[in-house]
UniProtKB/TrEMBL annotation, chains A, B:
GO BP terms, alphabetized: proteolysis
Keywords, ordered alphabetically: Carboxypeptidase, Endoplasmic reticulum, Glycoprotein, Golgi apparatus, Hydrolase, Lysosome, Metal-binding, Metalloprotease, Protease, Secreted, Signal, Zinc, Zymogen
Entry's localization field: Endoplasmic reticulum; Golgi apparatus; Lysosome; Secreted
Gly residues biased stretches: 193-206
Signal sequence region: 1-21
Species: Hufsiella ginkgonis
Start and end residues of each stretch annotated as Disordered: 187-206, 510-540
Domain annotation Peptidase M28: ranges: 301-502
Keyword Transmembrane helix on entry: no
Molecular function via GO: carboxypeptidase activity; metal ion binding; metallodipeptidase activity
Record-given protein name: Carboxypeptidase Q
Complex formation: Homodimer. The monomeric form is inactive while the homodimer is active.
Domain of life: Bacteria
Amino acid sequence: MKKNLLFSAFFAIGAVSPLFAQESFDAAAVQKIRDEGMNRSKVMETAFTLTDVTGPRLSGSPGLRKAQEQVAAQMKAMGLQNVKIEPWGEFGKGWQIDKSYTAMTAPYYDALIAYPKAWSGSTKGAVKGEVVIVKADSLPDLEKYKGKLKGKFVIYDSQTTQAAGDIFQADGSRNTDARLAEMAATQPVTPGAGPGGRPGAGRPGGRGGAFAAMAFRPKLAEFLASEGVGLIINMGRGTDGTLFTSNGNSRAKDAPKAGPEVEMSGEDYLRLLRLVKSGAKVEMEADIKTSFYTKDLQEYNVVGEIPGSDPTLGSELVMLGAHFDSWHSGTGATDNAAGSAVMMEAMRIIQATGLKPKRTIRIALWSGEEQGLLGSRGYVTNHFASTADMVLKPEHSKLSAYYNLDNGTGKIRGVYLQGNAAAGPIFRSWLAPFNDLGATTVTISNTGGTDHQSYDAVGLPGFQFIQDGMDYNTRTHHSNQDTYDRLSADDLKQAATIIAAFAYNTSQRTEKIPRKALPAARPPQTPGGAGAAGTAPARN
Amino acid sequence: MKKNLLFSAFFAIGAVSPLFAQESFDAAAVQKIRDEGMNRSKVMETAFTLTDVTGPRLSGSPGLRKAQEQVAAQMKAMGLQNVKIEPWGEFGKGWQIDKSYTAMTAPYYDALIAYPKAWSGSTKGAVKGEVVIVKADSLPDLEKYKGKLKGKFVIYDSQTTQAAGDIFQADGSRNTDARLAEMAATQPVTPGAGPGGRPGAGRPGGRGGAFAAMAFRPKLAEFLASEGVGLIINMGRGTDGTLFTSNGNSRAKDAPKAGPEVEMSGEDYLRLLRLVKSGAKVEMEADIKTSFYTKDLQEYNVVGEIPGSDPTLGSELVMLGAHFDSWHSGTGATDNAAGSAVMMEAMRIIQATGLKPKRTIRIALWSGEEQGLLGSRGYVTNHFASTADMVLKPEHSKLSAYYNLDNGTGKIRGVYLQGNAAAGPIFRSWLAPFNDLGATTVTISNTGGTDHQSYDAVGLPGFQFIQDGMDYNTRTHHSNQDTYDRLSADDLKQAATIIAAFAYNTSQRTEKIPRKALPAARPPQTPGGAGAAGTAPARN
């Protein structure tokens, strides 16, 4: 272990030449953590509770409320202190599915795989009707449909004729040695390229026709609802019965009543489309019931702590976090019950070892991540600083680092520095005892799309680990198949062990984790831009 | 082309040394066939009609009846003669799904992926109930459940805890050169090993405990139905939303009324199981309606002909065939709309070229294949000979060869000789003009599980082509995902072209295709054995 550690500490990242000293840590404590995490893991028990037992956890839904209460109770049972279900701000309407049934009834009967789109409405009970294609790219295109769509089941045209993917390509993969070496060799970002990514940076915003068509979809859906269609049907991504469901109608408190709308598996959707295009009379039946909840428009994060044992450092913080919310089909297993279960397990491991961290270690399980990192952004604004004015709150100086996990069920292969070169030698040392478990790589690179960015945006050290991709992008991420079945026990066990060690090491370190320069304030965007309730794009 | 042909003709099969002469054929005619088949293919149009338009084609169902009428009309429209929907014998009750809805309602709502098991009954309208595990391997085990299961949703225990497959393995593959070389080098079967496989040979029949448990399932289902359970739920094979549905309850005319019974996707099933085992209260709702049809217990094959143009040879026959029936989920695209569409296309190609085959070329689209090659066996018994007595009917001497396609959407890589070594040099020559399309391999091997076996069993030359496997065994074969999307246009086009050439060459050949020795008569098995209506195992 010692040898590994020395080797690792002398291995510089690519062209970066930080002034590094030997980073020391309590190897015996880390060994204790490793023993507990690898030999007495309870991560799959927690994962079972977070998936099968609690079900989907869409932000604002009763399902998430119940899950938050369950996990808060679990935190208390684990002996965590200051457990809170803490509001972070207004999210919008809650919503859930009470019934979902769709079937083709002519030219023959077949039950179809479809899920109500988030924040969509109900059918008028059990309804039947003809399937029709609506072609419209702008409001004038809709004129010809006025008064003609009552009770119809509406689909849109598509150039796609067959739904099958590449059958010669495996769904899943792990990082190769070559890929990891490439990441390790990545150069630091050039100055001026930003402080390591900010929420909303780099999103596609105006790619002409396709984007205009996408932007028109909500208006189109509103028109169709007002015409009293039976059901609006969108083609979902995915094949083989896997259906990716994400995004949704507006959840804003003043949003108009949405029509009934589903996302349907590619195979089922394209069959409808091919049949209607061929001139066949196609009929469907559906019975969809959804409920909206407006009593409490707030959303919450769940937090809990192992209080710091050091009289001085105890007031300082190490944070672990993962988003706890999911989309509404499947049970959000890899996105992100996996990360949540790993963070709960990391806390359990530390507790079980009997180690007494000097700094306080706080876990936060976020909500609203899928709608734009909302829970973590709200928390960071409430506790540390707002990106709008960059006025630092007292806690800003107290946080050492925030560690995040949100890239599925794959084990940890290393860590992204988010451009924070000074943290490199530290993390490289800390990974050394886990090199044999495949965790070797420190990259200067950023990664985006999850909650460490909320910290990074206000100049706080926030890190996401490098994980093996597995079948996250091809099969599980936001899909109806993101269930307990997709969780890899060995991978999650490894991840929880490494994160427990990182958290403990961070809590014991003489200094806090080095920081990058503070970013400049970014006044809020104009109203109606990305980030307004109900219009924020989906994030993972 | 000539060079290929000579090369091919001198390339002997493994250790077999047949006395072969140069097999001549009309290369110009074959070129015409290739041009029509490869450049003006209509195979996907036919496949669309056989899948999307006609839907599932379970033997005995109204869906198959309608599809048979449609395809007979298509045969007539193509100019085929003597088109008939020809009864082959008693099949049993017809059955179809009128409605299928299942959902979990507690601990939270989620619609589930499930299909009624073939020939299963209806729920008592829309029903709700608690999910319970029944553990029983024999009748005495059932005592403790008497009077306790009314309205319950019954699942069985399983050792499996997670449903995911191997995510690092691609669903699909093609035959490698090495595999084809291995097939080409296969030795002839030793004398006494049978005449090339017989229907029913080699099936597992008594593997102790596992088989006993399987055999007990129908009795168990009967008990559960009699106790008035709400729904019986079986775990289906398959992952990712793919659900393999096959086999079924008894279709016999005197079979007792079956209870409502579904096969459910692994992920959904195992979630129910994990939850119930954990002590959670799990509830479901379901609304399943199925219909039985007893007015006509016969089943039918659809046949049509291009009459032979030669005054003498015109009374002789070449047959092409594929089974037209499917299981009841998906639309039986690769099993076997693919083979049916290819055979229809082969007939169309011959018609379109204007060639006048000397022998009659007859297409047969079978039913009852999935229940044990019943349609082709019935046809062979009615037209050629019964395996029971091997008394040859006059047509037996008239058939040159039967060609079959039933291994999915993959292109043709060669042909199985079924132990008929004398046919090897002929087929090797005929494949030569298609070597560049990947069809190169002649193997002495048998292949089983489909309708050429019905011919082989009475000493008639029946052949199945070697096809690329694609994702047939992993994804499509008997699954809810066996839809039009899985059909590969290029592969089917190639297959139809090659089969059209084989059919034409067979019709023109001076002699009929050589035959193996006639097999001995095999008196019928004792009543209740494999093959009795309702108890025959599923075949592909």
